[in-house]
Design a protein that fits this description.
HIT family, subunit A, binds guanosine-5'-monophosphate, 2 helices, alpha+beta, 22% strand, five-stranded antiparallel β-sheet, 5 strands
């Protein structure tokens, strides 16, 4: 399991040390465009105050804010006009899944017909 690294890029974005193309923000969450989009709409949703590196680090007490984050992602997807066309939520967990930033985040991907392959 990864330790949380305070040098990670998403924490810098949250702390306004690095700019982002912001889509949504409230006290708890920030959503911004991925810098290397895999689809016409490719957003990243992060908690602003939970320093959890990866899904592998999650414990039962995280259920509430993780649930909130998923519900919020559906609202953001709707605001982006994706609710009827469809979209994909992705959480990469660890090296073999391709996780590169160790601040837990949700990808919201849509705006085109996505590949049927999950791997
Ligand atoms: P992961 O592979 O960890 O699931 O996803 C990390 C994502 O963060 C990648 O899709 C990558 O393109 C994106 N990313 C990496 N650095 C930056 C950055 O500085 N700004 C933004 N907006 N996205 C980034």
């Amino acid at each position: 399991m990864h330790e949380y690294d305070d040098d990670n890029i998403f924490l810098k974005i949250i702390n306004h040390e690095i700019p982002c193309d912001k889509i949504f923000e409230n006290d708890d969450f920030l959503c911004f465009r991925d810098i290397a989009p895999q689809a016409p709409i490719h957003l990243l949703l992060v908690s602003k105050n939970k320093k959890v590196p990866s899904l592998a680090n999650v414990v039962k007490e995280d259920a509430s804010w993780l649930g909130e984050m998923i519900v919020l992602s559906t609202q953001i997807a709707k605001d982006q006009g994706l609710d009827l066309s469809g979209y994909r939520l992705v959480i990469n967990c660890g090296h073999e899944a391709g996780q590169t930033v160790y601040h837990l985040h949700l990808h919201i991907i849509g705006g085109k017909k996505l590949s049927g392959s999950m791997t």
